[in-house]
Amino acid sequence: MSYGDMAEPNGGGSSEKGSSAPGGAGGNATAPPLRSTNSDNEDHVYHVRWVELGGVKYPIVTQNENGPCPLLAIINLLVLKGAIHLQDMGGIVTAEQLKSYVMDALLGAMPGDLPEASQLNYQQNFDDAASILPKLSTGIDVNVRFTGVRDFEFTAVCSLFDLLQIPLYHGWVVDPHNQAQCRAVGRLTYNQLAEKVINDRASPDKEKSWNAELCDHFLKDTSSQLTIAGINQLKDTMKDHELAVLFRNNHFITLTKHNGQLHQLVTDQGFLQMPSVVWETLSGVVGGGKFTDGDFRESPPQLTPEQQIETDAQIARQMQNEDAQAAATMSASRAHPASMRDRRSKSGLHHRSKRSWPRQNQPGHQGNLVLSGAPGGGDTSIPDDVRAGDDVQGQSRVPSPDGDHGRSHVSPTDNTSNSKKWLNIQPQLDCKAQM
Question: What is the reported pLDDT for 279?
């Protein structure tokens, strides 16, 4: 029995295909893409810690400073899902070994009975996803839309999450009750919005320059890439005990929901010797989360004074790095519009030995992932508990001159789950081009 139910066929997403760095003709500036920032040391060794969830112990790969957060978020979710089992390497694992696990999961997810007409499309998606693997340890690009937590521009990154049946979310959503800002931002991606600010701010057209100011105000006030509207929509969209990956502040985080509360998996290496600290609540845009154990009971770390000082310093450094990265991204989008590109890994995938981690009360392996098609959904829901006039970031904002924004609601597709299984794995966005 795996830690979580297997995912339903993907559907309900609203990723759209397009240029990752759109720019107009005639010398218009282009903005750099959102990019997770990671260590350039692709052969780095990462420490593994054991945590207990639902009476079962799982190995979790921890992250050092600027570690490969997209790779670790995917690996740790697959471990909790029961899709992979890490090898016993004395409590350490390399980036190349982790990428080999992801490739194994991709191969295991390949359906054996695809209609001939669908095989070519699947092969293309598989090739796109495989091309992303070398970048997982150095940084990957995503391009969010601000209309919903599952709205991304379609890229090869989207194909990777889709084939692995891992829901990919973000929380960077415009306040639906601020109609002026909603109209200015529209369905633009981050790249398009940054370019709009660059190109239209000095426009002689008053409407264009005003909209550019509204967009610039939104980007500045939400530089943490998380809003109250986004948090509320995440709570509405996710089901209890669903496992997903959240993109926030140029980082990827393993996320779940328990009793209506969002929890992010604690992977910082500073908690390596604190097995009672497993999750941290995500309730606001500026921190304030509480640590919990594997059963979601509040569990403040029991530290010696020396450990407390070091842990506080590590957290402070991490927050400082994240703030600096967010500020640099915003600054680059306005002052240095040249596009940034990722560097590919120079080495291939590392094949694993046959020995696996010793598992205590480990459930049986769930087997291969299953991928199948499903009808796509519509727009994601607008949360009811976002009040008109609320300050999304607790900072100044341009007041909305209009009333409530129109809203729509699409209920998530229900899963048929085994009551003995601990988690529901929800469908990932349907990464198909919108023609």
Answer: 97
Share of the chain above pLDDT 90, in %: 51
Q: Structural domain tally of the chain?
A: 1
Within a domain: residue 373? no
How big is the CA angle at 413 (ends 411 and 418), to the nearest 5 degrees?
130
356 pLDDT higher than 70: no
- Cβ neighbours, 10 Å, residue 240: 12
Instruction: Determine the structural domain holding residue 47 and report its residue range.
Output: 16-335
- Residue 406 placed within a domain: no
> Over the range 275-286, which residues count as b (16 or more CB within 10 Å of their CB) and which as e?
bbbbbbbbeebe
- Cα 172 to chain center, whole Å? 11
Residue 313's φ and ψ, nearest 5 degrees, are: -65, -40
What are the CA-CA distances from residue 28 to residues 25, 181, 207, 333 (Å)? 6, 23, 18, 13
Catalytic residue among 241, 251, 263, 405: 251
In a domain, 353, yes or no: no
Return the sign of the alpha-carbon dihedral for residues 390, 392, 398, 402. negative
Cβ atoms within 10 Å of 411's Cβ, excluding its own: 10
Per the domain annotation, does 401 fall within a domain? no
pLDDT digits (tens, 9 = 90+) for 281-294: 998 998 789 999 99
47 is catalytic: no
- Told to judge if 215 belongs to the known catalytic residues of this protein, a careful annotator would answer no
